[in-house]
Amino acid sequence: MLRFLIRRTLGAAVILLIISALVFVLFYAAPRDPARIACGKVCTPETLALVKKNLGIDHSLPVQYWDWLKGLFVGRDYTSFGHCDAPCLGYSFQNREPVLATIEDRFPTTLSLALGSSVVFLIFGVGTGMLAAVKQGKALDKIASSASLIASSMQIFVIGVLATYLFVDQLHLLDRANYTPFTEDPGKWFTGLLVPWLVLSLIFTANYTRMTRSQMVESLSEDFVRTARAKGLSRRTVFFRFAWRGAMGPIITIFGLDLGQLLGGAIITEYTFSLQGIGALSVKAVSTNDLPVLLGVVLVAAAAIVIFNIIVDAVYALVDPRVRLA
Amino acid sequence: MSLSRRNFVIATSVAAAGSTLLSACSSGGGGGGNTPTDGATSYTGAKVTIGTKADSTGPAPEIPGAKKGGTIYGLSPQDFSHLDPQRIYYAYNSTAALLLHRCLTGYKTDSAGHQTLVGDLATDTGTASKDNKTWTFTLKEGLKWEDGSELTVEDVRHGIERLWAPFITESATYVQLALTGKGAKWRDAYEGPYKGKHLDSIVTDKAKRTITFHLAEPKPDFNFTLGMHSYAATSPKLDTKEKYDKLPAACGPYKIKAHTTDKSMVLIRNKNWDPATDSIRNAYPDSFEFTFGINILDSTDRFIADQGNDQYAVSIYKEVPAERIQKVLTDPQLKARSFNGLLTGLYYYAINTKRVTDLKVRQALNYAWPLQQIRQIYGGPTAGEIATSIMSPDLIGYEKYDLYGKNTKPQGDPEKSKALLKEAGKLGTKVVYAFPNDPTYMKTKVVIENALKAAGFTPVMKPVDQTTYYDQIQQINNSYDVMWFGWSPDWPTAFTVIQPLFDGAVIGNGLNNISQTNISWINEGIKKNAVIPDQKEAGKAWSALDKRIMQEVAPIIPETFQRRYYLHGSKVGGAQMDPQFASTLLYKTFVKA
Amino acid sequence: MSTPFLSLRDLKVHFSTEDGVVKAVDGLSFDLEKGKTLGIVGESGSGKSVTNMAILGLHDPRNTTMDGEILLDGKELIHASESELEKLRGNKMSMIFQDALASLSPYHTIGAQIAETYRKHTGVSKKEARARAIEMLRRVGIPQPDIRVDDYPHQFSGGMRQRAMIAMALVCDPELLIADEPTTALDVTVQAQIMDLLKDLQQEFGTAIIFITHDLGVIADIADDVLVMYGGRCVERGTKKQVLSAPDHPYTLGLLNSMPSLDGAVDVPLSPIPGSPPSLLNPPSGCRFHPRCGFTEKVTGGLCSTERPALEVAEGRGSACHLTADQKRDLFADFAATRHN
């Protein structure tokens, strides 16, 4: 296990390094100048040069990348902001806020959104999928299957607006989407995120329903499930301890990847509900040519995916003893 | 405000490179004379006047029915990009600056949207020497910073001297140019205030509370220029340099209590602001609470739902989006909670005169252009007025004319166009039209292409990546004949439109004379009009120049003066459009009893 | 004859599918005494596994119709409730499956799987159940059972897995053991060991065994009685000696001819039965074997394709064929000559 972790962590670090370098290169390959924004409406070449110096982008690409990397590991000194401790992700071109602090500020929103909706779609998706598998071919199965098909073809920005209109504005059942830190007021945190959770999870629920159903159906036809029944175990025990155990592996794998992706920001959901998470931050970073923020966000998103890949592999090994970590 | 306002991505960012062009510290009457038939609030479209000393004396006239107290909530897709007044040039940032900062001059707006230039920090709109090269202002008494310290002429001077600090790169540059006379090299003339030296060209007398500007060139509208927030006062003692952008010291009616970047900002009353010194601002609410990151559909739906604190909410600057405009205009309850006005800027199509060299062809383009169909795509008459001149109705001296029959045949006049092309022997001329590839302009492209074909042209349509659109068309060696564009004046004199767009001296990569017009009588006319002392006289001269440019050069095809609609909560009183910055005039709002 | 321990009477197992009704078992009867081994022979799809799954009640009731009678120690099973069956399964009757790797849960240790069965039926503590599991593993010949008890199935060799499977099936001392081709996937040496193991255990506990296989060699080794199935029906039955040395049905004859001689006569060419097993969705009319049978023209009136031959059993011996005893004696004579010296 330790060896696995060390090996995979090293691999992840290399991947993140390559990704950051790629973002750097691609960013400067685009025909836009990040200095142009801070240069204002009257942008003379003199002012542009000054802005580049202020932003620390008056050096060659490799030097800039090296400075950025160094900042990440040993910190960095800025003329206008002073020392930035490692891990230093630099300062936003756009609003001159430290990138790390910005991400730390936004991440809880994205984390809350991801975890909350995960709970919802796991409960409903896996639950419905299991029910559908038990009631294979019956009305309930057919309803669940077609409902999930409809749900998965929905657009978040459509149902998001609809759900808000219906449940918030008309029926006054739920609170308007709004992020309150959990540490500040768990109640408000919950009610403020409930609508985004439900909407975001709707699409995932559909996927998990279908996946759980098919995995369970497959698993239920396995020989070892038949053996378990032949041993005299009850349907219930067989269903949960044997069939579900077999269906879990693929679901955990997909869930890990989904969660990793969600932690990189649910852009459309965040936009629809005006939540300020990693997704909204990344959209802003792209539209304002804000390289430091963009790099920070990409790193967080990539790290989330890579880390969850490792976790998935580790958990898979726990679930399925045939898999050995190496 | 953003040029590409219909673009989802760009619209989420005030400061995307492209949107830097149109807009700024403009001013003017609430809108043109012709209000759309379907129910816009009436704006009579008065030009800006220059106020007297009495107009400049506070307090601001009471708004009937208004009372002090409560909180007004503001919603916006994005945070203010700058709060350091010297770094403010975008209209949107000025919306906040109006509550926090004060300049020597400012605009007093009445309930009909009429604006008067008055002294803000100064007792009046200043005194110019005969040659318009020396301007003197006297400060009002009782001016204080939020910490209670006195606001002096040295603070006004420091605000201007800070513009030389290397970290300030976003400001307007009119005053720097005027003070140094060194053109683009203005930074070389002074090392900035942080090493103890002052500008020689500004003389202050603390005892008499006077400040005198010695300009290198005559500037009869210099008092308009000084109303831009780039030239607001900043105390050297309270100046925290780079950090000032996050937490500037206030001398206006409100100060910053809390600010979380991109999320929220809370403004509370600045107890050291004396209403008696301020003829512009009413400041009824005890506080403002702004929430950022609310997309415009979301905020519009919240205004429509009108629940909880949203009843006390205004849109800081975002208009009702096209998707909801019909709902707002057809529901009387919603319409009662809306207000609207014209933008001060002009949307137009620049013709590259270096490529399209024949005047007749440029005139034929003007005849051919299908303005009505284009406006229909923007949303019909509610989307704005059809433009026929360079100057917008808000500019001093504006006179309406219609050289190419756009009022009689707004759908285009293909016969006239064809006849002109035939005359020039240019029937079938190839025209390359460049436009941003966002959904709206992909639609207008179609009607333009059809109209050009009907009018005897061979159109070539060139969509350009919307995020780099301005950078690409601002290259002087680009391969486009006609380019979609827009421009908004920095203050309500035509100098701020005609000079940047048609002065032969400002042709270059990244500059705005993209029609590359370089004609000696235009260049001279700009120089001459810029120094006419009386602004009314100057206005007449500008209007004549405007018409002559369109008649004898026709370097652009004017398109529209656009209209914006805004919503607010039911418990908000006094909400009206700020004609200067195309936003809600926050300091006039109040909480209804 | 006393009441048999297990008795099937006219068992029918029909599956409803999208294409129609599959008559997997279509009227099967047999008896089995304690301490005896019944070998059931037949090709894939002949209904032998379906029969045994039916005894355990493992068919999905949503698409299965069962008819007839299954009496285990006098208790009727077809209409027994699920919970009654659960008490019997793994306890009084248990089953060994063919592919031990697929049939053992990959997610649980061998020991846990054995102990689980024991606990379910005896309610003893985990500790006792574990001790029992170790004992069972030792009994089936797993070396170091106290260590291997915590291994997962994939850590066992093929033979050891099958032993573990047997240990699991026998942990509650069942009175009926159904072994569904338990040795098919194993190599010959291991196969022999497993067979010996089963025989030993049977002797020790007096278990009744149903041994399903398509391998007549295995039958010769273990069975007391033999039942040959074809197309969901029994076509011949009798003692091992009767069936193997004096087959009374063309299909049994075909089976014997298609395998190497039991006593090692290698010079005789093998002749597989032509054609393929019948569709149970649309079974052939009359005798289900008739499309593949080489003797149909010997039967007058084309009875083979029109009339189902009755299974006439006397003293446990019988077959279902339209040929007369004389005809068979003549036609099957070759077989006796080549097979038995």
Automatic annotation (TrEMBL), chain A:
Which residues lie in coiled coils? none
Transmembrane intervals: 12-30, 113-134, 146-168, 188-206, 251-273, 293-319
CDD domains, from UniProt? TM_PBP2 (cd06261)
KW Transmembrane helix (keyword) present = yes
Q: Which UniProt keywords apply?
A: Cell membrane, Membrane, Transmembrane, Transmembrane helix, Transport
Its localization reads: Cell membrane
UniProt xrefs under InterPro entries: BPD_transp_1_N, MetI-like, MetI-like_sf
Q: Which Pfam families match?
A: BPD_transp_1, BPD_transp_1_N
| Membrane topology type | Multi-pass membrane protein
Q: Which PROSITE patterns does this one have? A: ABC_TM1
Q: Give yes or no: UniProt keyword Transmembrane.
A: yes
A GO BP annotation:
transmembrane transport
A single GO CC term for this protein reads:
plasma membrane
Q: Which residues are in the ABC transmembrane type-1 domain?
A: 107-316
Q: Please, which domain of life does this record's source organism belong to?
A: Bacteria
Q: What is its main location?
A: membrane
State the family named in the UniProt similarity comment for this chain.
Answer: Belongs to the binding-protein-dependent transport system permease family.
Protein name as annotated? ABC transporter permease
Q: Which organism is it from?
A: Streptomyces alanosinicus
Species classification: Bacteria, Bacillati, Actinomycetota, Actinomycetes, Kitasatosporales
TrEMBL record, chain B:
Q: Name one GO biological process term.
A: peptide transport
The signal peptide stretch is 1-24
**UniProt-listed CDD domains:** PBP2_clavulanate_OppA2 (cd08506)
Mind listing the UniProt keywords for this protein, alphabetically? Signal
Task: Quote the InterPro entries the UniProt record gives.
Answer: Peptide/Ni-bd, SBP_5, SBP_5_dom
One Pfam family linked to the record: SBP_bac_5
Is the Signal keyword given for this protein?
yes
Output this protein's name.
Answer: ABC transporter
Taxonomic source organism: Streptomyces alanosinicus
Automatic annotation (TrEMBL), chain C:
Report keywords, A-Z: ATP-binding, Cell membrane, Membrane, Nucleotide-binding, Transport
- Principal localization reads membrane
Q: Which domain of life is it from?
A: Bacteria
- Which Gene Ontology cellular component annotation is one that this UniProt entry carries? plasma membrane
Any one GO molecular function term: ATP hydrolysis activity
The record's comment on protein family reads: Belongs to the ABC transporter superfamily.
Protein known as: Peptide ABC transporter ATP-binding protein
The opening ranks of the lineage are: Bacteria, Bacillati, Actinomycetota, Actinomycetes, Kitasatosporales
